[in-house]
Amino acid sequence: MRVVVTGFGALTPLGSTGEELIKAMREEKCAIDEISRYPIDDREVTLAAELKDYDEEKEFTRKELNRLDRVNQYALLAARRAMEDAKISREEMENRRVGVYITSGIGGLGTIEEDYQRGMKRSFDKLSPYFIPKAIINSVGANVAIDIGAHGACLSMVTACASSTNAIGEAYRAIKNGYEEIIFAGGSEASITYLGIGGFTSMKALSISKDKNRASIPFDKNRNGFVMGEGAGILVLESLESALKRGANIIGEIVGYGVNCDAYHITSPSPSAKFAREAMGYAIKDAGISPSEIDYVNAHGTSTNLNDKLESLAIKSVFGSKMVKVSSSKSQMGHLLGGSGVVESILSILAMNENFLPPLINYKNKDEECDLNFALKAEDYKINYFLKNSLGFGGHNACLIFKRY
User: Which segments of the protein form a coiled coil according to its record (predicted)?
Assistant: First the structure.
């Protein structure tokens, strides 16, 4: 059974609508800036890609905010927009097999911080009764299912930075094999917090640059860590039969999915890049095409030393002498962790339909260990197939192949 994309919803540092995201890519916008969420005077890391214009009080009532962490809020808004974009009615939601595969890499981190402080001040017996439901990762998908009335499988695959890519891939398999007709698949992240930034800072994973145009610089020789982003993205996946029956607007097709694990180290990728290479190979085989038919790779491209070097090795080993076009959307909006795969897939789908390449911005210094054919401009280019890579802590490798419909 063929699986197509019939809508999307997004909240990203680059924008939320298709028009905003296309404009941001074409204009090669950088959404990274100084953190405004908390004081940064004494902090080593001072830059992030925030949702600058987001006002939760305009989006939700006070009663709703009491039970929703930001990670839940972002997912709910993205899902509502995806439902509207796909033109699925409430009646259809009730009478169809509709699943929700929406996840997060970390979940309600802001809630964990707030309630810990409340417990220290007042007593841990006086925490908010919503603490656990706001903090746990499955609530990201569960809140969406409740909100849109989806009664199919509601699953949250948690594989760190590969989470939403795995969610899309597993949703693709579920529809392909006849388990669901429609699935809302994606992820959300809200980790620009004291704990989120502090934790990755202590790992030496984040960029300490003070220059927003030289902080998230995937594959650049001077890269020194990733930049945290936030937001959510959701794709509406549907069987082709269902989409045609209801006259849906089809914006792409998923044709391949590859997944495996390095089983090497909890944070470092395997130095051989063997399993990242194999995951790409599995996706290509699943699609029934050859590597030469892939026009573009949206890389994981985190701007960390090991990821970029080893992902480059994997890409070169798959594509050989064919210098496939490569870029990383993290150069524009930082790393949305568990939400990165879906948001970067959305950007790539939009670019595919508008016939241009998502750009790798702020790249200046060539690294011989990252010797790829980078798309340094949002140049006109026809994409028939693109491959999306996501490589998560724990050795999680997930790859998707999308096709022009």
Answer: 51-96
